[in-house]
Amino acid sequence: MRTGQQLRNSPTGPILLCALILGGAVCLPATKANPVNRQSGAAVDTVESLLGQEKQTTRQRNPNSPQAQLKRAAQLVKSDHVVAAKPILNKLLKQDPRNVKALRLLAECHINENLEGTGHKRARQLLQRAIKIDPDYSDSYRLLADIELIDGNYKQALTLCDRALACSKPVNVAHRTKSIALTNEKRPKEAVKEMELFLEGVKKVGKKPPTRTVEVYAGTLEEAGMYKDAIAVYSQMQKDHYSDHLALKVAQCYQKMAKPEEAVRTLDQLIKANDQDELALAERARIFVSMGKLKEALRDYSKSIELAPMSKSYLERAAVYEKLGMKDKANSDRQKAAAF
């Protein structure tokens, strides 16, 4: 919890301490009489203002204050300790049923407790109650949009995102929710713009976007056919933290750009570093098939199946056997695929 400075360290400490000891009486240094008394009045106003600030700081320091408890609950929800957060939020709402932030946080608790949807009904009730109290609280609409997104109601999610972004203080994360909804509505170019707005907002406050969000952005670029841009994002992520998965995504983008040679080179490096990656082997096999290199494809499919037998790999290898005129082996692979 953020704490204020101690009273004794404050430049106005002696005056404020005197005022507190005397139960509110203001002790000021002696001054010459002033017929108009403007200086004394200004001094009293200054000290009263400082006293008000000190009282506010004292409330913030108090771990049992509603503000401190709300902050504690928010930290617990953020760290996914919703069981510990709920009693705090319920107590706050008992004290103040119109606490919109507590209602929103409690709704998030219900969502996180059961992502399959049974907690969504209660979350919706809490958020609708929050909106009724404060129709201009952006995050209530945004969280409702997240629920609709989870439930597959993408158009409703878009409507709620627009309402969130129309509030006087819109939450930036609504852009991300809207981007995901647009992607599911097969509107990838619009989705890219919304995700870029979200990332710009994160950058403005000096934060680093979550890795998963950056990957979603790259995937959105890919969905929009912006493969070069997607490769740039994936490659930058690779520099920050190497991943076989990201290298595979780069190869797939090259393949979609009709650049199979670049795709193969990317996978060559991946497989050289990890020759046990069955997904990379299967992907390189597919690219070899597209290039007409059937023997190379057969080799990669066989190694991939050896590492992790899958119905899809058997069927794809069967197609290669068929093209090579090896019908018995093709039929054998199809039988193995059917056994899965």
What can you tell me about this protein's structure?
This protein has 340 residues and is an all-alpha fold. Among the domains are: 1-25 and 44-57, no CATH class; 262-340, Serine Threonine Protein Phosphatase 5, Tetratricopeptide repeat (Alpha Horseshoe). The protein has 18 helices and no strands. It is elongated and about 80 Å long. The two termini are 55 Å apart.
The CATH topology of the domain at 262-340 corresponds to: Serine Threonine Protein Phosphatase 5, Tetratricopeptide repeat
Helix tally equals 18
Percent range of helical residues: over 70%
- Quick one: overall form? elongated
Helices and strands: which structural class? mainly alpha
Poorly predicted runs are 1-44
Briefly, what CATH class of the domain at 262-340?
A: Mainly Alpha
In the CATH classification, which architecture of the domain at 262-340 applies?
Alpha Horseshoe
Range of strand content: under 5%
- Rg measurement, Å: 31 Å
Largest sheet: none
- SSE run: HHHHHHHHHHHHHHHHHH
Q: What's the end-to-end separation, in Å?
A: 55 Å
- Average pLDDT metric: 85
